[in-house]
Amino acid sequence: MRHGYSGIPRWVLGLAAAGALFILLPLAAMVARVNWAQFIPLLTSDASLTALGLSLRTAAASTALCVLLGVPLALVLARAASDVRSAGAGRARSGRRRRRSRSSWSERARTSSASERAGLAAPAVVAVSVGT
Asked: Does the predicted TM-score (pTM) go above 0.70?
């Protein structure tokens, strides 16, 4: 019998199965305990509608704050990363000799450090690579 490479190690599949059970078992327990005969009246009660309204207002406020604060922050970070790149290019033109030749993005990606490939790069590095 021939065993092919599935691409996903067995230990990762085991962790994924444990995570799925971590979510599905409590849901199954809640479904088993619901009083289905009184479900619709409970769902439309004043307490349930009040809780739903509070949840929707809170979610809307949270989304608005994330957009109002996050978009300008992302713009500042993107511009700052652009300024860092242009400052580096200005030094190269100002007479200092660069140590290595200008390489393409794919060559830089291939020669990146192991920590950058693992997602442990500094946020500014991530912003630079996203902005290009």
From this structure: no
58 contacts: CB under 8 Å, gap ≥ 6: none
Residue 121 lies in a domain: yes
Query: What is the C-alpha separation between 64 and 43, in angstroms, rounded?
Result: 28
pLDDT digits (tens, 9 = 90+) for 64-113: 999 999 999 999 999 887 777 777 665 555 555 555 555 555 555 555 55
d(CA 65, CA 58): 11
Total structural domains within the chain? 1
Domain that holds residue 71: 63-84+113-132
93 in a structural domain: no
Tell me if residue 104 falls in helix, strand or coil: coil
